Amino acid sequence: MPLPSPAAARAVAALALATFMGPRNVQAQQPTTAQLIAITDRVFAPWNSTHSPGCGVGIARGGTTLLERGYGMANLTAGLPILPSTTLESGSVAKQFTATAVMLLVADGKLRLDDDTRTYLPELRNYGRVITVRHLLTHTTGLREWSNLVAWQGWPRGTRVHTQSDVFKIITDQQALNYPVGDHYSYTNSGFLLARTLVERVSGMDFESFTTKRIFTPLGLTNTSWRGDYTRVVAGLAQAYRRAPDGWHIDMPNDNVIGAGGLWTTIGDWLTWNEHLTRKTLGSAVVDSLTRRMRLTNGTEIAYALGLMVSQYRGTPQIAHSGSTNGYSTYLARFPELGNLSVAVMCNAAGAAATNYTYAIVDALHPELAKPAARDTVTTDHAALVAWRGLYEDGRWHTMSVIDTSKGTVRFNGVPIRTLRDGTHLLGGQVARLVVSTDGRTRTLRTTTSDGDSVVHTLRQSDRWVPTAADLQALAGRYRNDEIGVTFTVAIVDGTLTVSPRHGVVETLTPTVQDAFDGNDNAVWFVRGKNGKGREMHFGASRAWDFVSVRQP
């Protein structure tokens, strides 16, 4: 069966309201178990099958567990269903546990959040600005994403077993950052992997032992442990799956990299954990720091705190984090002003919309919450937008977006552009302002990220570049990057440019604008030397912005 869309998740929430409709002050009335089951049965109906993976869901309020329930199968081969006791993998929800380990060391007086990370990790380079421990835990270091780096080595995740020592070395070997420390928020796993080693060095214990002794055991999280050895047999662990044209395939993590993710746990342990955070069992200094939002160097306060997102959902405060690892998809949230409501969702199907399922449950339990404001759109002047046709390069990771007018309407990356009353435009779900420079030569789209940053997309060409054989030949050659120890071979295969980091791994490049290409989830562009041949090859991705390799003689 196809994966349910976010719209479908909202629809089932609406259906659930027929079963449970509380008064405006829903906090005063606790739903019955039958009402909760009716809600979750509708939300997870697409997964309620013996022929598909599924999800586990837990709901608690005010420290009382109201429901733990499973839908779908934990193991399709063995015919084992997902139960409340089933163990699944957390994905990035694990980051708050790593941040907690760091904060326990702060409480012990062994380090400070504003310490220079190089005090504990001297292997890390000096990038001109101090990378503090706080930067590691808030995605503001500028460090490149380690999984991009190993993929560019020719060994993406899943192709070999990566270890902490592997990723520590490749992270600390980087000679440049995505951006100056603290200037932006850019989600990567690298900071949290460094935090794992920091915990080990400061505590004098291995990471798994420290977190077990200081967090899991004292808080009664008896079903929680790290995937430090992915081959370890764990009773009740759900297989993770991805859907392919010929059916479901196993999609399990097969590396030993933990700290940014890699936590095995249960719905019940997650609800217990959220309650301990609410009660501040580990101490106010520890827990309050976890939810203190980060400020960028320009003073902008972002939603990310320490391993947690602190934001709002439909006008009510929310403390939450999502997770995704291979075939696991998860979300853990608590809503302090909704009677300390906690919702935990853990799925073992790649692409399962755990976040949307959580919100569908909250919508059903709290129909009184503010509805999202409708977009104030006006009729789009398509004729005026024709001049904006072309390929736009974003100013961060250099990927290309397209405004296309070929089908009688103006589209951005295939989605019709809508116009708002204030003169801005909706590009899909993102608001953009179209700006022409004072000299009329430059057209840009300016969008705003969730952290308040502006991203500028600049018109590069009206039409896609069609390179000649001579163009491609000028770019072919060998390009070296010492940061990952790879010499790339750029070659022409059947009239198409390809790039290979090692034998047997070849990436086909699709031309976009002059000397630039789309690759596999990244942009590739070349800088030519005075002789007209490629001098540098650059890679750009959302978590690794500008990665440079130099042509070899």
Secondary-structure topology with pairs:
Elements: H1 6-16, H2 33-43, E1 55-61, E2 64-71, E3 73-75, E4 80-81, E5 88-89, H3 95-107, H4 133-136, H5 146-152, H6 164-172, H7 190-203, H8 207-216, E6 225-226, E7 241-244, E8 247-250, E9 263-265, H9 267-279, H10 284-290, E10 309-313, E11 316-325, E12 328-335, E13 341-347, H11 354-365, E14 377-378, H12 382-385, E15 390-394, E16 400-404, E17 411-412, E18 415-420, E19 425-427, E20 430-436, E21 443-448, E22 454-461, H13 469-475, E23 477-481, E24 486-493, E25 496-502, E26 505-508, E27 510-511, E28 516-518, E29 523-528, E30 534-541, E31 544-551
Antiparallel strand pairs: 1-2, 1-13, 3-4, 5-9, 6-9, 7-8, 10-11, 11-12, 12-13, 14-18, 15-16, 15-22, 16-17, 17-18, 18-19, 19-20, 20-21, 21-22, 23-24, 23-31, 24-25, 25-26, 27-28, 28-29, 29-30, 30-31
